[in-house]
Amino acid sequence: MKKPLLILLIALLLPTVTLSQTQKHFQKILDTAQNKTVRLVALDSLLSLTFRTDTDAFIQYSEQYIDLAEELDQIEDAARKAMNLQHPLTNNAGDPLRAITIINGVIARKYKIKDSLLLGGLYLKRGRAHAKVNLEQAIEDYTLALQNFAKNDTLHRADVYLFRGQAHSSRGKFAQASEDYSTAFKLYENKEAYRYMVYAQQGIINMFSMNGFYTKAKKERDLLIEKMKDLHLDSFLANEYYNQALDYRKMGDRRAEFKALLKAEEVYDTDASSLYTFIGIHSMLISYYCDHSQLSEAKKHLDLLEALEYDFKGDLPSEINYLGGKADYLKAIDQLDLAIALIENKLKLAEQLGIEDDIMEAHNFLSDIYYQKGNYQKSIQNLKAASSIKDSIYNKSSANALAYYQTLYETERKERELIEKTTSLTLLEKDNDNFKRLMLFGSVVTILGFVLLLLYRNHRYLRSHKLLQERFSQKLLLSQEEERIRISKDLHDGVGQQLLVLKNRILTFGDDETKKLVDSTIEEVRSISRDLHPFQLQEMGITKAIEVTLNQIDENTPLFISSEIDNIDKVFSKEDEVNIYRIIQESMSNVLKHAKAEASKVSVKKFPQSIVISIRDNGVGFDYSEKYEDTKSLGLKTLLERTKFLNGQMKVTSKRDNGTLLEFQFPI
Length: 668
What we know:
Layout: H1 3-13, H2 22-32, H3 36-50, H4 55-71, H5 75-92, H6 96-107, H7 116-130, H8 135-148, H9 154-170, H10 174-190, H11 194-210, H12 214-230, H13 237-251, H14 254-267, H15 275-291, H16 295-307, H17 316-332, H18 336-353, H19 356-373, H20 376-428, H21 433-509, H22 512-532, H23 536-540, H24 542-556, E1 560-565, H25 574-595, E2 599-606, E3 610-617, H26 624-629, H27 635-645, E4 649-654, E5 660-667
Parallel strand pairs: 1-2
Antiparallel strand pairs: 2-3, 3-5, 4-5
Helix pairs in contact: 2-3, 3-4, 4-5, 5-6, 5-7, 6-7, 7-8, 8-9, 9-10, 9-11, 10-11, 10-20, 11-12, 12-13, 13-14, 14-15, 15-16, 15-17, 16-17, 17-18, 18-19, 19-20, 21-22, 21-27, 24-25, 25-27
């Protein structure tokens, strides 16, 4: 619509009404006017009046406006209203699919839209709607938005990178998410949009959590909370405490989880905070109180959620949290069938969004509840499904952690290359345009080809190098054990025998002092010989050898040891028994040398398919990743190599000042 005509129409309409009659006046014009342009102006005025005051009316008027604008071929006006309609349709009406359909109708005629803000905005808004139902489609929309926004649409591009980072992160694509969050943060920073920088920083912190770097995430989150307080961004605090509670839950620290949830509940601002956070906080509190048999407290929080009378349609993450909390309460009050129905619904929604943590939790819940009902077949099926997803999460987390660090390195390298290329292009501007394009195209193709070749060769090299390293480590362990056996026999059969002869001769001459010295030397040689090669393995078997070793440590050191040792004799080969013995021996040596512990518990459990060994102490603990990367520390690396030699798995759980738990699992 031409602006002079629009101004004229508004001038004709406005003087005839008073403020109290405005909405009725424009509604009457809408109902009676035959001229479509006049009706469009009336609808525009009604939208201004109902925006944020009457959501249902705003949605109704918006749909009418879009239909009428398309009839009048005013596609850019229709695009603006379709973009404004997305949020109330998706978040208030809970109908993201309707929002997608309306935006699709406008995009079908995008060839009539010249404004980059409108073109990019349509894909951005469609992506926001898709994020509620299909994260993969949302990522595709965000990518299209970046392609349609102009380079100078800086803040809009920053929004797209932020939302795409969130979608990548939810799907477990951590490397891509990290790149998007970092880009969004830099763009917001350049425009001094500090409030939105918080969102980008939150995404980066969540990256650390999803990769298992909980200590790093806690440190960064504490700094962010202080920054929020300084900037008076109090509406964000509840979400940060809630996210910290989620981290504590994954770490198994339920007490810290509870404290973080109470903080989140205390600072929650109903006027500013997200309803998703409110539902998440109270759903987790329900689960916590149920786990601690405080059912009256759990019921209070469930009543709070149900009092919302919230329509979860279109808000799948909130519905997943609510279903999980209510199912925990129903299970606690022994309404198992109702609990199963809710969790199966939660499982379906989690699978739809592809959130593996929630899928795994749902299967574990079903496994427990079917076990209670005596349906052992379904219990085992769900337990296997949960274990499979747990392994998948672990493997993805390891791979994504590596990809995350590789991304940081590649980003810095690409920035340096970009500077070099920019300098070269400045010099090439003296040549004609065709030559510049040809050279640029050839350079890009060559660089891409070289990079792909380099990545392929590097991948093959790393893979073969890893295999060689593992074989070398295993051969080294075998050679080391053989050398120990040889030295042990030499000490026992050679030096030991000679010392016995010397002792007998001294007895003949009656020199008691020299006899004591020789006895001490003989005992020390025997001790060294036993340490070099555990002859008790051959004489008594692996089970008794472990018990004897633990008793010796208990009797001869300040460390108190309790143990539960199942009989594992003749389960493994002699060679494997030596490695298992060494794992326990070296683990206890680490406890004595480094843990500063007062007590330790050693458990060896035999199961039908595996042997599980756990060694726990109450010492000072340590940071596993930091200790493993320390080139001077070989203890953990040796334990890991011996575990791999036995095709087993090793898990280390340790926090500073909270002791350490080493767990080993070996297949039978």
